């Protein structure tokens, strides 16, 4: 899919938007949880609103894809209203993604945006492991394994002596933040591979699958609001503490989740790896300026290792089958010559 004929300008556009969304989301979320003045909003409601916006955007994309309201109605009836089993199937990643999104709020309430951005790249080996276990694929390339070990080593350096932010005055728990990232990474790997497996099991439209998942996601996140902050929400209101910055975070989360499908379609692994590395750099710069992040040698070394490992992981695989065929052919010719 990534090799479709599109202009370099469009690919650069995809790369730029993906990088800015990834960096801006972590920095803005960190800002709303630590620096922004005013009453602190309920993170569970923000996750729920995000699911609602994703559903609306997916409905818009499905309307464009079907081309008419009549086809849209028949598609919704066929795949959603009269397909309870499919909704139940997509409820699995809905629950996992809901946990992941809530863990992001916990992590960024306790860790700097740059530290979060680097550590979150552990989703790469986690996704690779889930791919092996769930899709029966193999990590045959030596470079892939080496990049995974390098990434883990880089994250270890970053967490060994975490950089501190001098402008953040609230009490933080770095251990809780790291645990939250670990849970989010596991959820990201499992849900991503599960959703890929569902997509490839049928010819159902991506936007239909998204709608099925977000419908379940809204129900799951509403339950999360009730269980976690039910009494406080009833007392203070669903949108208590919301500011333009909070709305910006919800917007970035909504658009970023849907934009991933466009990026996967039109860019390759090298560009996505470069985007992840650029997002780390931008998050670090923003953290220094906004939160007074003090860069340590361990953090800088770990971040560089992570960026290099992301690039190595995205390198295309060599077609060894063709090489082996050429070698066999050359060997046969040599035998004929010797005879």
Structure description:
This protein is an all-alpha fold and 339 residues long. The protein has one domain (8-315). The chain has helices spanning 8-34, 43-66, 69-81, 84-110, 113-119, 123-135, 142-160, 174-200, 206-236, 244-266, 269-291, 297-314, 320-338; strands at residues 164-165, 293-294. A two-stranded antiparallel sheet has the order 1-2. Helix 1 (8-34) crosses helix 5 (113-119), helix 5 runs antiparallel to helix 11 (269-291) and helix 7 (142-160) packs antiparallel against helix 12. The radius of gyration is 22 Å and the shape is globular. The termini are far apart. Residues 319-328 and 330-339 have low confidence and may be disordered.
Structure, briefly:
Pfam families: Nuc_sug_transp. With 339 residues, this protein is an all-alpha fold.
């Amino acid at each position: 899919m990534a090799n479709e004929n599109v202009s370099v300008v469009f690919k650069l556009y995809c790369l730029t938007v993906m990088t800015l969304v990834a960096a801006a989301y972590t920095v803005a979320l960190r800002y709303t949880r630590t620096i922004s003045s005013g009453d602190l909003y309920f993170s569970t409601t923000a996750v729920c609103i995000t699911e609602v916006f994703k559903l609306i955007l997916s409905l818009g994309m499905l309307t464009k894809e079907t081309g008419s309201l009549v086809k849209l109605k028949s598609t919704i009836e066929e795949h959603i209203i009269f397909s309870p089993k499919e909704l139940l199937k997509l409820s699995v990643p809905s629950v996992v993604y809901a946990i992941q999104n809530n863990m992001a709020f916990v992590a960024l309430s306790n860790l700097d945006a740059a530290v979060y951005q680097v550590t979150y790249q552990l989703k790469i080996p986690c996704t690779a492991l889930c791919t092996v276990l769930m899709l029966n694929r193999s990590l045959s390339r030596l470079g892939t394994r080496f990049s995974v070990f390098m990434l883990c080593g880089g994250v270890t350096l970053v967490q060994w002596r975490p950089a501190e932010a001098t402008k953040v005055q609230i009490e933080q728990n770095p251990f809780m933040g790291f645990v939250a990232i670990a849970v989010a990474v596991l959820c990201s790997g499992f849900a991503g591979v599960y959703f890929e497996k569902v997509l490839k099991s049928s010819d159902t439209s991506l936007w239909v699958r998204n709608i099925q998942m977000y419908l379940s996601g809204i129900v799951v996140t509403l339950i999360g609001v009730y269980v976690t902050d039910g009494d406080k929400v009833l007392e203070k209101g669903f949108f208590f503490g919301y500011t333009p910055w909070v709305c910006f975070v919800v917007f970035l989360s909504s658009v970023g989740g849907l934009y991933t499908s466009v990026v996967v379609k039109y860019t390759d692994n090298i560009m996505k790896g470069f985007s992840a590395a650029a997002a780390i750099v931008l998050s670090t710069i923003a953290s220094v300026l906004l939160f007074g992040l003090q860069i340590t040698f361990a953090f800088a070394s770990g971040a560089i290792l992570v960026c290099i490992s992301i690039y190595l992981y995205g390198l295309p695989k060599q077609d060894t089958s063709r090489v082996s065929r050429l070698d066999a052919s050359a060997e046969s010719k040599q035998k004929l010559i010797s005879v």
